[in-house]
Design goal:
The chain is an alpha/beta fold. It has eight helices and seven strands. Strand 1, helix 1 and strand 2 form a beta-alpha-beta unit. Magnesium ion binds next to loops.
């Protein structure tokens, strides 16, 4: 049977929460979609805490784990699973299910009802409460990065970093087979390539429902992101196809 939807969970050292996430997702997916038409793929980004083994050991129907040994970054984890997935629609969301589970049904319906859209991107800036619960400094970092992307990168959407994005099969092949950025800046690479290859992007409001302590190092990760950004812009411009 052809798969309608693949849900991809990039995962790096998420042991304390990952079994709960896998069970919650399995329950949601089997209630929302017909048997055999969905899959959940955990993409193990070189976890050293046994996250991958923990999910495998649960042996949940429709749930699988892909991955590699060495930590490379969220971009690499998402790309690996996107290319391994089989669904007509493939979406990724964070391991802590920060945007809830209903967002999966909402994204799938939105793509079905909007045949023109190839890609659907969650945005925390389309509703007043999108950033509710964020610390001041985390919210500020997010806004500064977005401004920078707009000014330096020519970004034209309202949220680049949201961890919830869905793609149709054709867009996945064209875009992710060419992506290179392994780290946090991969979201922008995906959006740049989507534009370059003529895919249509729509935005949809999302809200963060669950907050946990951030694992991001604002200084180190921001510097690396800016470097990746600069390199990526140059590379994509140089490519002819
Ligand atoms: N921190 C981190 N997360 C990774 C990595 N690779 C994949 N991930 C996954 O990427 C997702 C987002 O990670 P978070 O640490 O919540 O980052 P975030 O949501 O952008 O930032 P916060 O607002 O601080 O939560 C999770 O599912 C992680 O398990 C990695 O190398 N480092
Ligand atoms: Mg998070």
């Amino acid at each position: 049977m052809t798969k309608q939807i693949s849900v991809i969970i990039p995962m790096y050292n998420e042991r304390p929460i990952i079994e709960n996430t896998a069970r919650t997702l399995c329950q949601y997916m089997s209630g929302r979609f017909e048997d055999g038409t969905w899959e959940v793929i955990f993409s193990d980004d070189g976890s050293s805490d046994g996250s991958g083994e923990a999910v495998r050991a649960l042996n949940l129907p429709g749930v699988q784990v892909v991955g590699y040994e060495k930590n490379r970054g969220k971009g690499c984890a998402v790309r690996t699973a996107m290319l391994a997935a089989e669904g007509d629609i493939r979406m990724f969301t964070d391991a802590d299910l920060a945007y809830g589970t209903e967002v999966i049904g909402r994204f799938t319906d939105a793509l079905k009802n909007n045949p023109d859209a190839d890609i659907l991107i969650g945005s925390r800036n389309l509703s007043a409460d999108g950033y509710e619960g964020y610390t001041f400094i985390r919210r500020l970092a997010s806004k500064v990065y977005l401004r920078l992307l707009c000014i330096v990168g020519g970004f034209r959407l309202t949220d680049s970093q949201c961890g919830c994005k869905a793609f149709r099969r054709e867009a996945v092949q064209e875009i992710f087979s060419r992506c290179r950025v392994d780290g946090w800046a991969f979201d922008f690479e995906v959006i740049l390539r989507a534009g370059k290859y003529g895919f249509k992007i729509s935005e949809i409001p999302v809200k963060v429902m669950c907050h946990r302590e951030s694992k991001i190092s604002l200084l180190r990760d921001a510097v690396k992101m800016l470097f990746d950004l600069w390199r990526m812009k140059k590379e994509i411009k140089r490519e002819k196809d």
